[in-house]
Specification:
CATH superfamily of the largest domain: Tetratricopeptide repeat domain
CATH class of the largest domain: Mainly Alpha
Shape: globular
Helix content: over 70%
InterPro entries: TPR-like_helical_dom_sf (IPR011990), TPR_rpt (IPR019734)
Distance between the termini: 33 Å
CATH topology of the largest domain: Serine Threonine Protein Phosphatase 5, Tetratricopeptide repeat
Number of strands: 0
Order of helices and strands: HHHHHHHH
Protein name: Nephrocystin-3-like
Structural class: mainly alpha
Pfam families: TPR_12, TPR_7
Largest sheet: none
CATH architecture of the largest domain: Alpha Horseshoe
Number of helices: 8
Number of domains: 2
């Protein structure tokens, strides 16, 4: 995290990958493995390496679902990042699916009026807009 604050993202990613390799050998640390994988995925998204980010985010979602349950807010954040990745890759239908899952999780875990739940609704709206599904676009854009 120190390297992240210094905007040394490549170094941060490299060190996190080393930590992930160690954690993968420890089955009792599945939750840590998921958290580190999510962090790597997020940093890869942040640095524009979208295709590389997706496997890390998918792995993180599975690990954290297994550790904390499918409605944990952390899982919602990961699905929101997956949606952003798919939208960046011009795959709005896949993005909409991820944003919908993120929205559902966040509504349960954070509540419907939480800022991150509202952001997930707005992201879902954006994906529907990209798909040309304007009725759904307006529904999620106006009524979060």
């Amino acid at each position: 995290m120190l390297y992240e604050t210094m905007n040394e993202f490549e170094t941060a990613i490299s060190l996190l990958k080393r930590a992930l390799a160690l954690l993968e050998k420890l089955p009792q640390e599945q939750h840590s493995e998921g958290s580190v994988s999510a962090r790597i995925g997020w940093l890869l998204l942040l640095t524009g390496k979208v295709k590389q980010a997706i496997p890390y985010l998918e792995s993180a979602a599975e690990r954290l679902k297994d550790s904390f349950g499918p409605k944990h807010f952390g899982v919602g954040y990961i699905y929101n990042n997956l949606g952003a990745a798919y939208l960046e890759l011009d795959r709005p239908q896949s993005a909409a699916q991820m944003f919908a899952v993120a929205k559902d999780i966040m509504e349960v875990s954070l509540g419907p009026h939480h800022a991150d739940t509202i952001e997930a609704c707005q992201n879902l709206s954006k994906a529907y807009g990209e798909m040309g599904r304007y009725v759904l676009f307006y529904w999620f854009h106006i009524i979060p």
